[in-house]
Amino acid sequence: MWRLIGGFNDDIRSWLTDSLTEEIAKLSEEQAKGRAGTQKALDRQASILAKQQRRDSLPGIKKFTYSPTGDNRTRDSLSHAEVIKITASFLEQKPLLRMLLVSRFPVLLIDESQDTNKLLMEAFIAVQSQHRDRFCLGLFGDTMQRIYFEGKADVDRGLPADWDKPAKVMNHRCPQRVVRLLNQIRGQVDRQEQRARSDAKIGTIRLFVVQDHRADKAVVENRTRERMAAVTGDATWTDPVAVKTLILEHRMAAIRLGFVPMFEALDKVDSFKTGLRDGSLPHLRFFTELVLPLVLAQKQGNDFAVTAIVREASPLLRKKVLVGAGVDQLQKIRAAKDGVSQLLALFDGAGIHF
Length: 354
Description:
By secondary structure, the protein is mainly alpha-helical. Helix content is 54%, strand content 3%.
């Protein structure tokens, strides 16, 4: 999308001005109705101020930037969500951009289309309807696997009548009873039926229903595994590591794996959302690509790996710093070693184990 709208700086500036003005007005209305002095009120006021400052800075920005793998934090950068919204808006309003899309990408295939932004999907479908002979749009996905609410819920039903709608009829993966259950579930959603392979096993399905939504999930899962161990005669069910647990969504993963505070704090920042979910956020990579490998290497007694990481990453051991230190180079090396020890002590003090 950025390849399509990048360079339309005046149009982007105008869109951002209108969008920020609308967001400020909405927040201001909520602020007037809300209770003063609460944390929500303080957060809203901070958001209003930040958006006002950004709107005021727009006239001084000559060129907008965007990086799908960067943190997009500079004053002239756009967030992932903004690029999608701007593209959808431009495709709807600007015939020139529709022509650019058709000429640059005459065949456009979208995977996981059920979770692709609703506004963008509707814009693409509209472009295809207007340029049937020049623009081929292919959607891959499964409405039953929809995770995000921003997706187009009725993507399978709201398509033009002249579209081809191939379906995967043969299920090569599941046992026969599983396929029958899936067909029962799908019948309430998209009425698509599959059939199992003729040589597929009959299979077994066990469904455990928990009536109390306040029940401790860990306790429920432990009891479920114990029951499955008894039913199947397989003691491996009692080993939580050996049992696969499906986690459908990022926040669910944060809850299960114990990092909700960090996830929620970063997820509030629009420019962090994409990097947070795909692991490319620089703030996270600092820990996943530097701190964690260093701590693990130290815990394992791998002095060679520790030295390699510190030599590569520590500003104390940069060539320019060591040359400038002269006869005091050894002090820099000791300081780097002490830094590693202090880092490890932080992990030990927090009770974090590997």
